C-alpha cells in the first residue's frame, strides 16, 4: 500500500535490482553483472518473434506492431519471475517515454532517493531540443500517445486481480510518477502527468468492478442469510463474508492509490503552466466522474472543472465543456449536478460567445443538453443569448444554436392519434411550428437574414422546413374557425422563409458568407436533392400561379415568389402533364409586368423568363413565344410614346414622361437577361439621350434608364460579334455605336444632376474596360478593330469626376445630409463602387498609371473609407510595372508637397501638420514595398532619382547661397532610404552629389537639415553589413520621428570622405558623365579588409588625442556631439542645438585639411584606401555603463528594470520547485476569490 500523498516523494526508496544497459547502438542490449547472477536471454519479458535481438519496452510500444495484450502478458510473466528486473524495465520505460537518454542503473536504484534519481535524469536530458515523444511530429509519434495510454490501461487491467495489491509495483510506479510530475523539465512533467492520469482512470475501472462485485456479494449474502435455518448453508455464508472482506480490503487499497495520485499529481497539475497538461487533467477527471459517478460525481471534484472553465487557453476550456457534456448526457445524473449548474450556469452561457469557435460550439451543445435534461434551469435571458447565434457567420456555431433553438421552440409537437388519417396542409402538426418560426424570425428584426436562419435549422429541422405543402396552405387557405390568420407582415416573412428553404434544398450549400468552399456531395445527398427538386416542382407548379394572383400587387411578395421557378426541374411540366399550369404561370407573369414598374419586380420577371426559356426542355417554344409577344408590345409602345414625347414645339407633360419611363424600365429590365437586338433599340435610345443633351430638361430617371438600356444594346451586340462570323459590317456598326455611346456618356459627365453623372461614369468605365486591349487576349485578335483607348480629355474628365464626387467629406455629400445612418452608409457604398470602377481602369492599363497619383495621395486622409481599395490598387499596379508604380507614388507626394507650399508658402514649418502628414504618407508607401529588397531594387532606385531631381529642380527665389525651393522634400524622401540595398545607397549618394555644390556640403543651418538628414540616411548601413546598435531606437511617433543613426568611425569617415571628391576632380573622370541607369548597374563592391593599415587610419592614441584637442569632423559629422573615449558610436539628433560661429569655422577648416590629406593619400595609394572601406566593428558594443544611461535618456519610451535571479547550474535548478500555476494567469480575480469560497 502506498503512503499518504502528504509525505514527501523522496522518502520512498527504489528497491535494488538488476538492469540491462543499452549499448552504443541504442537497440542492442548487453547484460550487466549483478547480485542475481547471469542475465536471462529475455528483455522486458518480451521476445521478438522474427528472431531479431530483444528490444526495449519503449521501442516495442513505439513501433505499435505487437498486440498490447501480449506485450503486457510477457511483462507480467517477467515480473513474476524477477519483479525487480521487470519493474526497473518499467521505470526506464517511463523515463525513455519522456525523451530522456539517461538510464536508471541498479546502483542508482539502491543508493539514491527519488529526488536524487530524478535530478540525475534531468542532467542526462537533452536540452538542445524541446521535442519529446508526446510532441514530436510524424505518423509514428502521432500513434505513440495512443499506444502509451493503451499500455498503461492494459497493464492495470491484467494486474487488477493480484499484482497491483502486492504493495510493491503500484507503490513504486506512483512514487516515480508523482516525483516526475513535479519536475521542472516539461517533458518529464507532461509525460508523467499523462501516465498518472491514465493510471488513475484504469484504477477507477478497477474500483468500479470491485464495487459491483461487492454489491453482488452483499446481495448473495443477504439472500443466503434470509433463508430458513434448515436450508441455510453456513459454509457458504462464511465464504461470502470472507470474499466481501477481501473485496473491501482491495477496494480500500485501490482508494488509497487513487487518493495518492489525485493529491500528489492532479491537485498540482490541473493548474500547471502548460495548457496541454491542464487539459489532460480535466479530460481525465471528466472520465472518472462519468465512469464512477457514485464516488467522483460530487461538488468536491466538480469544482475543479468549474474553476478551469475560466482558463485563458481555449484548449483547456474545450476539455471542460466536453467533460461536462458526458455528465449532462445521462439524465440520471441531473440531480447531482444541480448545485454545479446553479453556480456555473452563467459562465457556460457566456462561453457561447467565446473567441474560440470550437469552445463556443461545445458551450452551445452543453446548454442544449442542459435544456434537454430540465427546462427550468435556463432563464429566458439565457436562451435569448443563444438564439441570436443562429445568424452567426461561423456555420458550426450557427448549426449548434439552431439545434438549441429547435429543441427549445419545437420540441413540443402535437401527438397524432394512432389510426387517424395523417393531417396535411394547414391542419398538419407542423403548422404551428412553422408559425413559430415566422414569429421568431420577425422578432429577431434581422429580416435580410432568413437564409441564415434556414441554414442554421436545416440539420435539426429539415423535415419541418421542407413541409412546403403546409406553407402554401397557410398562404392560400382560409383559416379555420377560431384560428388567427396571418398578418401581412407574417405572410411576407413566410414567403421569404419558404424561398430560402427551396433554395437550400435545390442547391445543397450554405448561403454566402458561411460556406467554406464547395463540398462533394455523397450519393445519398444527391438522391435527396433530386427527390426534393421533383417534389417542390410538382407542388409549386400548381400553387405558384394562384399565389402570384393573390399577391400580385405586393412588390416584395411577388419578387420572392417569382424566384421559385429558377429551382424547378422543368421536365416535370411535360412528364407530369402540367402544361396548363405553365400557361397560367406565364399569364400571371405578364400581368405582373404590366402592373409593376419597380425595378426589382421587373428583373425578377426577366430572370423567370430566362429560367423557363431553356432550349434543353420541350417547354422552350411555348415560353419563347410568350416572351416575344410581350417584348413586341413593349417596344411598339415605347416607340409610339417616344415619338409623341419628342415632338418639337410641345411641352411634354408628367403623364407622358411617366409612360415613357415605365415602358423604358420594363424594356431595360428584360434587356439585361435577354438579347433584344432584333428590335433595334439603339437608335431610339440614342435619340432620346441626344435630345436630353440638347434641351437639358430631360427627367433624370429617363436618362438613367436610357443610358443603361443603350449599354445593354452595345454589350449584346459585342456578344453576338464575338460568337458569330465576325462580319465586317457588324464590326463597323458595333464600333460606330460604341464610340457614339462613349461620346454621349462623356457629355453626360457634365450634367447638373448627380445621379445622371454617376450613371454615365459607371457605364463609361465598364465600356472602356470591356473594349480595352484586354479583349483581344485569348485568341480573339479578330476583335482588334473594336479596341478603344480613351484620349487625354476623357481621362482628365474621369479623374476630375472621381476627385469631386468621391473624395469629399461626409458633410459635403448630398446623400449624407439626412440623419438616417443607413442613408449615409448607402452613399458611402456608392462612392466606393465609383472609386473601384476607376481603379480597375488603372489596374488594366486603360488610363495612364500616373493618373493614380491623385488617388494614391488620398490614402491617409480617406483611409477609413477607401484605404483597402487604394492599397489593393497600389499592389496590383506594382505587379504590372514596379518602376512606373514607384514613379506614380513619388508623383503623388510631389503633388501634395506643391499643394502644401501653395497653402503655407515657401517658409513653411517642417513640424507643421501638413508636412508631417506627407511624411507619414511616405512612410506608409515605404511599408507597401515589403521586405524583399531585391524585387523592388530598381523601383526604389528610380523613386530616389525622381525625388532628388524634384528637390533640386527649382532654385531658391532668394538667390544663390540659399537652399533650393523644394529641398525639404528630401526629408520626405528619406523615408524610403531603408528600402535601398547597401550598394544602391552608395550609388544614390553619388547621384545626389551631382546636384550639390561645395558650399552646400558645408552648410549647417536649419534650412539645410533635410539635405543633411537625407545624406545621413544614405550613409547609415551603406558601408558595412552590420546594423547600427542604435538603429532600433526610433521614436514611436508616426509623424515626426527623430533620426538617430550611427556616425561613421574615423576609419569609415575617411573611407567615405575619400569617395566625395570635389566636382572639379569628378569632372575629369568619364564615370561622372554616365547615365543614372549605368550608375545603378556599376555598383561598388565591398572588398575584404587587408591586414595592412592605411596611413590615414589612426590608432587609439591618436583618437584620444583628438578627443582632447576637439573633434576632427568631416562634413559627414553633421551635429556637434561630445566624444566618448570608450566608444566610437554616435548618432544624429532630429534637431541640432544652436552652434556658435566659431565652431562652424573650425569645422570648415578641419574639413579643408581633411580633403587635402585625402588627396595626398589617394595619390600615394588609391588601392590601399579602397581596401580600407571595410569597417572596423570591434568597438560597436557599448562597454561603458554611464554611456548606456546617456543613451537611455534619449529614448522616448519607458524602460522597465528587470531583476533576474543569479544563474544556477543544472543541479541547483532541479531543486527549484516553483508553483507553475498562477491563478491570475488563467482565471479572473473574481473567480479566484470564488475558488477560495467554494473550496
UniProtKB/TrEMBL annotation:
Q: Which gene encodes it?
A: STAG2
Segments of skewed composition (Low complexity)? 1047-1056
The similarity comment for this entry is: Belongs to the SCC3 family.
Principal subcellular localisation of the protein: nucleus
- Molecular functions (GO terms): chromatin binding
* Gene Ontology annotations of biological process type: cell division; chromosome segregation; sister chromatid cohesion
Q: Where is the composition biased (Polar residues)?
A: 1072-1082
Location in or out of the cell: Nucleus; Chromosome; Chromosome, Centromere
Provide the organism lineage as a comma list: Eukaryota, Metazoa, Chordata, Craniata, Vertebrata
Superkingdom of source: Eukaryota
Which residues does the annotated region (Disordered) include?
1034-1082, 1196-1216
Subunit notes for this chain?
Part of the cohesin complex which is composed of a heterodimer between a SMC1 protein (SMC1A or SMC1B) and SMC3, which are attached via their hinge domain, and RAD21 which link them at their heads, and one STAG protein.
Protein name, entry field? Cohesin subunit SA
